[in-house]
Write a structure and sequence with these properties.
alpha/beta, 10 helices, 11 strands, binds guanine
């Protein structure tokens, strides 16, 4: 008998906690502020950015959106980041990725003051995570950990397999599972006999961006399966990296798409922005 992990419900709880803490901060005259930069017209990015603004409103943050045209130059984008680094009421800076191909995301990330880097993409923050001494965790992997915690399953000693090795999800995800004493393996497109590895996973996190790639024969009985995918199936319908219908009966817990990891990412961004505001005001 599988149970569905309700990402919307866990996300609501995290946001409510952030809202309450924000209320307290406001009594001290501090309002957390988030700047979101988006370049170009990518429709998926537009939706994400709108949801981030909405979440800011829900928890009581100040937010500013910078929608820049597709033909923005690297210099213009860099200058905006530098300006935001210097603005006191902006505690967090997020540049929505992917950027149009003529722009270098590494250059932008490197320019964000690490203490305002609420994505935790800056090399200083990535390094801090590696040694387990960090201010911010990257939003999606941190959200996945919250979902795993919500099941009550103890990660210690479990075999965790992360599918995908991106800087945004796969690599930090493996590190967070390791911090909680899982035995972690990362598999990717060049892994030989991938299914033989995933079949051993007590906790399986799929972050490869391939619709319904994970099938029942790749999953261990009783596994906790977390689906980070945001893909489209053959009919253009939103789905995950996991073939939910085929896999669910083998799982102890499984996340749906939509309504699983997606809502968590934004809640963790709110949490990071709150932390950033606290640190910048000498409270943390
Ligand atoms: N694009 C997809 N996911 C993310 C994210 O977590 N942060 C940013 N900045 N861009 C993204």
């Amino acid at each position: 008998m599988y149970r569905i992990i309700d990402g919307k419900a866990v996300s609501r709880q995290v946001k409510e906690q952030v809202r309450l803490e924000t209320e307290e901060l406001k009594k001290k005259g501090i309002t957390p502020g988030l700047a979101v930069i988006i370049v170009g017209e990518d429709p998926a990015s537009q939706v994400y950015v709108r949801n981030k603004e909405k979440a800011c409103e829900e928890v009581g943050f100040y937010s500013e959106k910078f929608a820049l045209p597709e033909n923005t130059t690297q210099q213009e984008l860099n200058n905006l980041v530098k300006e935001l680094n210097g603005r006191k009421e902006i505690n967090g800076i997020l540049c929505q990725l992917p950027l149009p191909s003529h722009l270098d995301d590494k250059e932008v990330i490197n320019l964000i003051n690490p203490i305002k880097d609420v994505d935790a993409f800056h090399p200083v923050n990535v390094g801090a995570i590696m040694i387990g001494d960090y201010n911010f965790l990257p939003c999606t992997p941190a959200g996945v950990m919250e979902l795993i915690h919500s099941t009550g399953v103890d990660v210690t000693g479990k075999k965790a397999v992360v599918m995908g090795r991106s800087n945004i999800v796969g690599k930090p995800m493996a590190m967070l599972l390791l911090h909680e004493n899982a035995t972690v393996e990362i598999v990717h497109s060049k892994t030989k006999d991938l299914a033989s590895v995933t079949r051993e996973a007590d906790i399986l996190v799929a972050a490869i961006g391939k619709a319904k790639f994970v099938t029942a024969d790749m999953v261990k009985d009783g596994a906790v399966v977390i689906d980070v995918g945001m893909d489209r199936d053959e009919n253009g319908k939103l789905c995950g990296d996991v073939d939910f219908e085929g896999v669910k009966d083998k799982c102890s817990y499984i996340t749906p798409v939509p309504g699983g990891v997606g809502p968590m990412t934004i809640s963790m961004l709110m949490k990071n922005t709150l932390t950033a505001a606290e640190i910048q005001n000498g409270i943390k």
